[in-house]
Amino acid sequence: MYPFSFTKAANTREALNAGRSGGRYIAGGTTLVDLMRETVERPETLVDIGDLPLREVSVTERGGLRVGALVSMAEAAAHPKVRALYPVISQALELSASAQLRNMATIGGNIMQRTRCTYFRDVSADCNKRELGSGCAALKGFNRTHAILGSSDDCVATHPSDAAVAFAALEASVHLLGPDGERSVTFADFLLKPGDTPNREHALRQGELITAVEIPSLPRPLKSGYLKVRDRQSYEFALTSAAVALHVRGGVIREAKVAAGGVGTVPWKLPAVEQALTGERPSDHLWAEAARHAADGARPLQHNRFKVELLTRTVERQLRTVGGTK
C-alpha cells in the first residue's frame, strides 16, 4: 500500500471541498481498501464521508423509494419499505456478500465497486482500465467469468454489483451533489460501457458525491425477485443473474422490468425480453420465448460461451418464479 493522507469530513461542504481538491471519498471501504492494498488504487488523500446525513430510506411523494448513499447494504436489505415495495432489491443485496461485508458496505459504494477481473487486480498484467492503451490480457487469457454483452476490443470485464442489476431493472436514478450543485443521472447513463475508454467507468464529475439512489414509482401490484447463479452458494460473484419485476393486471402483463448481471460490462437491461412479455398472458411458453432474447447481441469469448445458454435459462427460471405458471 502506498502512503496516503486521511481526513474526515464533518459536513457536506467539507467533503465537497476535499473532493474538489482531488480527495477520494471513502465510506465502508470494503472495495477501495482492498484495491489500495493490492496497489491497483493509489489515492493520495482519502476523505471519510461516514458522518454525512445520507442514511435515510424514504418513500417519495410520487410513491417511489429513495435510499441514501450511506445506508449499509444490510440496513437497506432489511428495511420494511424495501422488502415490501421492491423485494428484488432486498434479495439482490442479501445475495451480494458475506454478512460482515453487508454490515460495512454502503449502497453508494456498492454501485461504484470496480470489476473483479483478475487481470485488473494483477498489476503485472495488461489492463486498459488501469492504464489506457496497455491492452486487455483477458481477451487472450482465461476469460470464463468475463462479459458476453457490452464488451469492446479494449475491455471485457464484468460489473460485479448485484444491487446494481436490480436498480438497472427498475430504472432507478442516481442523485449527485458536487461543486456545481445537485443533479440526477438515470442508472442506464451512470455506469458506462467500456468502448475505447474503459478507464472511465461512471458519470461522476470531479468532486461529486452520490447522495442517494431513487427507484421510481411503478404500477401496483408489482411482483419482483432476484436470481443469482454462481459457482458456489456462499460469497461468490455471479456467473449470471436476473432481476425481474412484473405488473400483471386482469391476467395480462402490463409492464415488465428485466435486467441481467454477471454477463455484461455494466448491469444489462433486457428490453427485447421486456417487449416480448408486455401485453401477453403469463405462461410457461411465454417465459421460454421471451428468455430466448436475453442473450441478443452476445459476443462470447473462448472460455465463457456457456454463459449464452446459462443466461437464457436463468432469465426463464426467474420469469417463471416471479410470474408463476399456468
Q: Please state roughly what percent of the residues sit in beta strands, choosing from under 5%, 5-15%, 15-25%, 25-35%, 35-45% or over 45%.
A: 15-25%
Strand order of the largest sheet: 4-5-8-6-7
> What composes the largest sheet?
5 strands, antiparallel
Instruction: Give the termini separation.
Output: 57 Å
Counting helices, strands and paired strands, the structural category is: alpha+beta
**The CATH topology of the domain at 223-323:** Enolase-like, domain 1
Mean pLDDT: 96
The sequence of SSEs as H and E is EHEHEEEHHHHHHEEHEEEEEHHH
Helix fraction, binned, reads 25-40%
What is the total tally of β strands? Answer: 12
Q: Shape from CA axes?
A: globular
CATH homologous superfamily of the domain at 223-323? Answer: CO dehydrogenase flavoprotein, C-terminal domain
Organism: Streptomyces phaeochromogenes
Protein name: Xanthine dehydrogenase family protein subunit M
Pfam families: CO_deh_flav_C (PF03450), FAD_binding_5 (PF00941)
Domain FAD-binding PCMH-type: 1-220
